[in-house]
């Protein structure tokens, strides 16, 4: 069976036909021409019009055949569009925007790039890295233009590290049940970064947001209060637990320094015992804590205060939780442990938005999981040099975007 017969039986472009194909220098070239009496369609509005002129011959890379590179060859026409009131290039069914790859190849590259590193995708499909990037960028652009965000009610806001020396990306996720996806990525973690998202999201969609979960970073919380008036702001309990764990660890390190001149400290090698919840301790770790309890250590007191705070999350109402916090706060402030006192005052200052979790039961647990996925995307590619490239990679893999039709 001839190659042209295979193409005609498997691929159909309305208004176009395959004219010829030939092999040159190990590459297959397939010539395409418009059918007779076929009217041009405007690439902007889709209206038909008369042909203005014909451009130079162009090539589009298609899926390889038996590892032989395949290119479509066509001379695009320009249309004098009465609707757009200007001369534009015709709509080409196998092309997507200005990308010189066919839709079929773009879809295959973008789909594979969701699970593999871009370098591996380039090797598998016999293309270069830049072509993979262009394909993913085109697919993401199309997906964002055709994405439905009308049902987005709950948001999770967090930051991930892009590279060393405090280079961060702000990520905004949808936290609606059954629809956890990446909505937006921005460079930095400042007020200006989140303002860019709010401007992108628009007043109408911002007014539909019912709840936002984020950490206690003032740059995020301040912008949410100002620009999302209908949203309940919830401070994430995982970040609060992280702050308390850090306070316990500071007490442990300070106590080790105090007893440094006395020889080997009893606290040596016990860091992870104090960071664990009591029900997650192994049998050996439980016996270690019983032994350390007799030594009347400051670290042990800090750990008990941390464990007591966990009762706060088990409360059923905000009123009950507020009462529980007052009891815990008095104990923390009177402990004489500066890191614990500092975290207690910080939580008291933010208590209003911590208690909202009992009215709007959302947390950033899913966000942390998605953050880990984002890190794995970066790691498998050994990082990305430019922030814009990393944004495209994250949106392609985590945005749950539809791919262009063929």
Note down, in words, how this protein is organized.
- The protein is an alpha+beta fold and about 400 residues long.
- It has three domains: about 1-95, no CATH class; about 155-235 and about 365-395, ATPase, nucleotide binding domain (Nucleotidyltransferase, domain 5), CATH 3.30.420; about 240-360, no CATH class.
- It has helices at about 5-10, 105-115, 120-125, 130-145, 190-205, 220-225, 235-260, 270-275, 285-295, 300-315, 320-335, 340-350, 350-355, 365-380, 385-400, and strands at about 15-25, 25-35, 40, 50, 50-55, 60-65, 70-75, 75-80, 85-90, 155-165, 165-175, 180-185, 210-215, 230-235.
- Strands 12-11-10-13-14 form a five-stranded mixed sheet, with helices on both faces. A four-stranded mixed sheet has the order 1-2-7-6. It has a three-stranded antiparallel sheet with strand order 5-8-9, with no helix packed on it.
- Strand 11 (about 165-175) and strand 12 (about 180-185) form a beta hairpin.
Features:
four-stranded mixed beta sheet, alpha+beta, 14 strands, five-stranded mixed beta sheet, 406 residues, 3 domains
Main beta sheet strand tally, sense and closure: 5 strands, mixed
Distance between the termini: 24 Å
Radius of gyration (Å): 29 Å
What's the shape?
A: elongated
| Poorly predicted runs | none
Q: Total number of helical segments?
A: 15
Q: SSE order in H/E notation?
A: HEEEEEEEEEHHHEEEHEHEHHHHHHHHH
- Give the beta-strand count: 14
Q: What percent of residues are in strands?
A: 15-25%
Spatial order of the strands in the main sheet?
12-11-10-13-14
């Amino acid at each position: 069976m001839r190659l042209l017969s295979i193409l005609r039986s498997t691929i159909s472009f309305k208004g176009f036909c395959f004219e010829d194909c030939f092999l040159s220098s190990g590459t297959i070239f397939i010539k395409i021409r418009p059918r007779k009496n076929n009217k041009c369609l405007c690439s902007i509005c889709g209206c038909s019009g008369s042909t203005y002129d014909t451009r130079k011959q162009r090539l589009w890379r298609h899926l390889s055949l038996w590892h032989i590179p395949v290119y479509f060859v066509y001379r695009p026409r320009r249309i004098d569009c009465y609707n757009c009131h200007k001369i534009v290039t015709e709509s080409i069914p196998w092309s997507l925007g200005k990308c010189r790859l066919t839709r079929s190849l773009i879809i295959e590259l973008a789909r594979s790039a969701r699970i593999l590193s871009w370098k591996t995708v380039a090797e598998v499909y016999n293309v270069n890295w830049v072509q993979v990037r262009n394909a993913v960028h085109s697919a993401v652009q199309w997906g964002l233009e055709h994405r439905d965000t009308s049902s987005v009610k709950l948001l999770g806001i967090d930051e991930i590290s892009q590279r060393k020396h405090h280079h961060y990306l702000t990520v905004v996720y949808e936290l609606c049940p059954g629809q956890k996806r990446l909505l937006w990525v921005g460079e930095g973690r400042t007020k200006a970064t989140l303002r860019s998202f709010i401007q992108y999201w628009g007043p109408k969609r911002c007014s539909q947001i019912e709840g936002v979960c984020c950490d206690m970073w003032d740059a995020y919380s301040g912008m949410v209060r100002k620009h999302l008036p209908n949203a309940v702001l919830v401070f994430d309990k995982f970040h609060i637990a992280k702050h308390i764990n850090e306070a316990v660890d500071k007490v442990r390190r300070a106590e080790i320094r105090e007893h440094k001149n006395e020889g080997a400290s009893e606290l040596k090698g016990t860091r992870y015992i104090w960071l664990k919840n009591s029900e997650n301790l192994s049998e050996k770790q439980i016996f270690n804590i019983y032994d350390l309890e007799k030594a009347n250590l400051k670290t042990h007191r800090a750990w008990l205060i941390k464990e007591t705070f966990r009762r706060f999350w088990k409360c059923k109402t905000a009123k009950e939780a507020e009462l529980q916090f007052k009891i815990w706060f008095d104990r923390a402030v009177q402990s004489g442990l500066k890191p614990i006192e500092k975290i207690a005052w910080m939580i008291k200052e933010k208590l209003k938005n911590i208690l909202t979790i009992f009215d709007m039961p959302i947390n950033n647990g899913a966000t942390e999981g998605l953050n880990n996925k984002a890190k794995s995307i970066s790691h498998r590619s050994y990082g990305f040099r430019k922030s814009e490239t990393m944004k495209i990679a994250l949106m392609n893999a985590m945005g749950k975007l539809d791919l262009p039709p063929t």
